[in-house]
């Protein structure tokens, strides 16, 4: 870290793209411009690049290449997983039969708003609560499953608190239930915040649908992907040409697809990298809790139940947005809640679901670390934060 350099602690919002990714993408703008649908050599070399990226994703997820669909974002993948499955299932339902989805109250808006929207179309949705730790309870989930249940969509890691949800356990539970059920319950997880840290082996996890985003894994923005287990009914939401196995029409964003392929090969998930980030996060958490009075850590208490990169705090008497702006003025980038909702002054739905008061939710700060975060940056953050909080508390008189 250079003197006076800014400190980015918002890796859960987005990550800087790796130079290696940029280099791999560059030829696909001006030099290699064929349309992958063309049968001539211009087109075929581009198709080969897409195939290669799909192989790279396939290796990471332990699946077949025919099970990967590239999309324009994780939000699109979430929409596609839920709406695409429902569209296909509706065609199989008898008249009067309802579709039932179980999700949680702490999902990203891409899932939550999709479910809210579907409720207007007569779909029944159950929103599971979470405990104070921000984790769903498996018994609550079991209790909500009925013979009508079609889909369970639970995120892998919460983007505001880092709370890890029991995806593998749900996968195993559904495997058992599906043995005895007349029709299968499908399982989707939004793994956007998990990809850099946790196993994404779809066989191990027992998921049918799995969402990833390019820009959270040091890849480009505007690209995502959805894993769709072979045999999962799904209908296209964008109709037209037969790109992406006929499931997403439109000429592919080739450079971005090449980029997400390289980005995925860059996820090393090594014990060293994970241990290092956990060490930095734990230092950050200890430092904040000891140096700033009237502060609470939001999320699971047990470090093992939190993804290594996220820590969420509430500071009594401080308004989250004001804190983010003050930190920015000191050259530190952090956030309140998720980036997508940070323009709206609503208290975080995640923190509210965990039982925080509106005031506590409004006084929250999310700090998120990444592979370029250093010890020096955490030290600097810990020097700056207490002073900023003290000043804001003086101003607010609380
Ligand atoms: C858990 C989760 N899901 C989905 C998204 C949306 O990703 P994208 O920006 O690729 O649509 C985000 C981004 O903040 C996220 O954190």
Structural summary, described in words:
It is globular, with a radius of gyration of 22 Å. It has a seven-stranded mixed β-sheet, with helices on both faces. The protein has a three-stranded antiparallel β-sheet with strand order 9-10-12. The protein has 14 helices and twelve strands. It folds into two domains: 7-17 and 269-396, Aspartate Aminotransferase, domain 1 (Alpha-Beta Complex), CATH 3.90.1150; 19-265, Aspartate Aminotransferase, domain 2, CATH 3.40.640.10. 44% of the residues are buried. With 398 residues, it is α/β, with parallel strands linked by helices. The model has no long low-confidence stretch (mean pLDDT 95). Bound molecules: pyridoxal-5'-phosphate. The site of pyridoxal-5'-phosphate (PLP) has 15 residues, from helix 3. Pyridoxal-5'-phosphate binds next to helix 3.
């Amino acid at each position: 870290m250079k003197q006076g350099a800014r400190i980015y602690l918002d890796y859960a919002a987005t990550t800087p793209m790796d130079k290696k990714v940029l280099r791999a993408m560059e030829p696909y703008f001006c030099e290699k411009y064929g349309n992958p649908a063309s049968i001539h050599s211009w087109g075929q070399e581009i198709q080969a690049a897409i195939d290669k990226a799909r192989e790279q994703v396939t290796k990471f997820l332990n699946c077949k290449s025919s099970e990967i669909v590239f999309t324009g974002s994780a939000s699109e993948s979430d929409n596609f997983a839920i709406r695409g499955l429902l569209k296909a299932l509706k065609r199989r339902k008898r008249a009067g039969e309802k579709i039932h989805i179980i999700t949680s109250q702490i999902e990203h808006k891409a899932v939550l708003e999709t479910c809210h929207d579907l409720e207007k179309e007569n779909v029944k949705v159950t929103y599971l609560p979470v405990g104070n730790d921000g984790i769903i309870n498996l018994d609550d989930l079991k209790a909500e499953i009925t013979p009508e249940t079609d889909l369970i969509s639970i995120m892998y890691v919460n983007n505001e608190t880092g709370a890890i949800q029991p995806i593998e356990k749900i996968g195993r539970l559904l495997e058992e239930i599906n043995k005895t059920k007349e029709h299968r319950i499908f399982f989707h997880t939004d793994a956007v915040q998990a990809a850099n840290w946790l196993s994404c082996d779809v066989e191990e996890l027992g998921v049918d649908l799995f969402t990833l985003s390019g820009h959270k894994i040091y890849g480009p923005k505007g690209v995502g992907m959805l894993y769709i287990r072979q045999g999962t009914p799904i209908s296209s939401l964008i109709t037209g040409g037969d790109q992406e196995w006929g499931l997403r029409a439109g000429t592919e964003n080739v450079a971005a697809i090449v980029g997400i392929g390289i980005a995925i090969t860059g996820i090393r998930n090594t014990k060293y990298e994970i241990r290092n980030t956990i060490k930095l996060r734990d230092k950050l958490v200890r430092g904040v809790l000891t140096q700033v009075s009237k502060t609470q850590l939001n999320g699971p208490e047990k470090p093992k139940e939190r993804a290594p990169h996220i820590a969420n705090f509430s500071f009594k008497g401080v308004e989250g947005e004001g804190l983010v702006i003050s930190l920015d003025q000191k050259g530190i980038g952090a956030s309140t809640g998720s980036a997508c909702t940070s323009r709206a002054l609503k208290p975080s739905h995640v923190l509210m679901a965990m039982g925080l008061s509106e005031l506590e939710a409004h006084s929250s700060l999310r700090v998120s670390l990444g592979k370029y975060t250093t010890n020096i940056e955490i030290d600097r953050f810990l020097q700056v934060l207490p002073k900023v909080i003290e000043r804001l508390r003086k101003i607010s008189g609380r």
